Structure formats: structure tokens, C-alpha cells
User: Which sequence fits this backbone?
């Protein structure tokens, strides 16, 4: 009798375990971020900074849900944050308000559009012309009326017809050269017709060297674009130009500390010599931050 009771208990335990298994979540992974769980769409960002939180999209239709990708812009199916169903467009767990999934188009660098509207990620570009909209570089784009940085129109007035990017740091139109600084391009004192297209790179000091006829522009890539040391301008051509350190240069047979010419220095004898109280020397003087701090002993 006791054995029979034990058998019944064992059968009941197995039954409950099997029932629990059938009640477990039914999971179908759609790509890295989207999945179907218990007939609901779930977005889960795998970025550790976002705590890997799973978010349900209650408004999404499981039946019509589709991941958007486009290999022509290097957006693979598994890496895409974009999706649609019959009525909506999604970016991560957000809905692109007013976007039409029937004519929605992915563009480069997180821009997208339908026939009437343009988006950067989930943000609407208010006033953007979808028909003429084109992505330029990084997070810049333009339409027939404006230049855009992400979802914001660039404040600087430019000539859109002649505007183009020199590289990731500078752009130009027919009249000005600009320092690219998000949604506020800074007018830069350089001739756009003579401004160099291919800068020289000095990886040792994280610097790029640009020039036009009468000036050398040294861009310090590890500085903030708003910092006063971001660009150093030398009023000189590139004759015999040489970088000695991050702040000392030789150009046209003259020694410079940043943009300041050092007077009465010996170009041939000038050297970088870093100590606790100095950073350069020539045959007569010892320097620190471009200032003479001592005379050399004869």
C-alpha cells in the first residue's frame, strides 16, 4: 500500500512538472533585439549601459511584424533597430509618429524617410523636404532648403548649391570654409578655392595639417572642437614646415609656439628638451610654454 502511494506521488510530481513546462514562455528570436514572447513583441537592448531591459511593444502586431534592413547601407538584419508592422514603424521600442510603413525607406547614418516625412532615429525632422532629402556624411544631411545635423537644422547660413564636405572636420561653399561643429558650423578664415583637400597626418601628436596660400592650420584631433587649442593658425606657407612637438613648430625658417613666432631663436639649434621647468632650448635660451625662462650657460 505504501509503495502504491509513493507511485501515485511520483506520477503527480511528473504531471506538475510537465504542466509547468507547457506554461513557460514561448520564445522566438527575430534578431539581436526583437523577439516574440507569449504572442507579444519584445524589444531588448543588449547594450550593457541600458541594463539589458526587455520592453514589451503592446501596440505592435505579431502577425505583421517585420525587421527592416538594407545591406546597401551596411545595415544587416541581425543588427537593425528598425521594424514595421501593418500600421506603424518602430525604432527600438519607440514608434515613429506618422511614419507610413508602406513607403518607409532606410537611409545611411540613422536617417530614414517616407514620402512625406524625414526622421533621425525616432525623431522627426520638422520642416524637412522628403523628396529632396539626401544624407551627406557623418550625421549631416541636406534637402532643397536646409542643411541638417541629426534632427536639427544647421544655424549657419550657407550656399547649399556649392556646399560640400572636405572631410570630417571641414566643409566649404563658394565663399567660406567652415569648421564642422554639430548644428553650428563655424566660419573659418580660409580661402575655399585654395584650402587643402588632403591634409597631412601626424599620428604621433594626433594632428592634421591643412593649408592655403598664406596660412597653415594645425588641427589637434584629441581636443574638443570648442577648445581654444583645437586649431592653431600659423601665418606662413608650408616651406620647410616641421612639427617639433604638440605646441612647437618650424615654418618658413621660423620657430613657433602655437601661433606665436619666437623672436631671436636659432632654428638650427632649437630642440625639444623637457624637464620639470622647461620644454625647449636653443643655443642661447631655455624655454617653457613659449617663454624664455633662463639663459643657457656658456
Assistant:
Amino acid at each position: 500500500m505504501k509503495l502504491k502511494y509513493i507511485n501515485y506521488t511520483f506520477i503527480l510530481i511528473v504531471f506538475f512538472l510537465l504542466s509547468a513546462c507547457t506554461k513557460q514562455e514561448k520564445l522566438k528570436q527575430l534578431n539581436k533585439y526583437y523577439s516574440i514572447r507569449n504572442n507579444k513583441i519584445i524589444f531588448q537592448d543588449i547594450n550593457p549601459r541600458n541594463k539589458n531591459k526587455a520592453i514589451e511593444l503592446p501596440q505592435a502586431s505579431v502577425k505583421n511584424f517585420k525587421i527592416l534592413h538594407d545591406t546597401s547601407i551596411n545595415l544587416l538584419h541581425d543588427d537593425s533597430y528598425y521594424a514595421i508592422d501593418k500600421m506603424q514603424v518602430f525604432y527600438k521600442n519607440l514608434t515613429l509618429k506618422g511614419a507610413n510603413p508602406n513607403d518607409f525607406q532606410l537611409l545611411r547614418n540613422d536617417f530614414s524617410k517616407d514620402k512625406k516625412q524625414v526622421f533621425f532615429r525616432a525623431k522627426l525632422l520638422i520642416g524637412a523636404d522628403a523628396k529632396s532629402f539626401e544624407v551627406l556624411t557623418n550625421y549631416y544631411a541636406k534637402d532643397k532648403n536646409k542643411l541638417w545635423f541629426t534632427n536639427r537644422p544647421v544655424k549657419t547660413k550657407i550656399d547649399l548649391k556649392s556646399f560640400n564636405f572636405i572631410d570630417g572636420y571641414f566643409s566649404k561653399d563658394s565663399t567660406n570654409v567652415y569648421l564642422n561643429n554639430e548644428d553650428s558650423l563655424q566660419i573659418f578664415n580660409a580661402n575655399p578655392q585654395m584650402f587643402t583637400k588632403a591634409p597631412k597626418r601626424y599620428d604621433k601628436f594626433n594632428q592634421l595639417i591643412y593649408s592655403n596660400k598664406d596660412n597653415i592650420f594645425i588641427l589637434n584631433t584629441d581636443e574638443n572642437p570648442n577648445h581654444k587649442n583645437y586649431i592653431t593658425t600659423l601665418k606662413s606657407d608650408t616651406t620647410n614646415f616641421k612639427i617639433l612637438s604638440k605646441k612647437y613648430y618650424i615654418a618658413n625658417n621660423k620657430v613657433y609656439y602655437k601661433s606665436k613666432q619666437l623672436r631671436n631663436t636659432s632654428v638650427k639649434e632649437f630642440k625639444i628638451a623637457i624637464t620639470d621647468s622647461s620644454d625647449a632650448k636653443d643655443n642661447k635660451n631655455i624655454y617653457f610654454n613659449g617663454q624664455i625662462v633662463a639663459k643657457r650657460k656658456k
About this structure: The first helix runs from residue 2 to 23. Confidence is low (pLDDT under 50) at residues 16-23. Residues 22-95 form one domain.
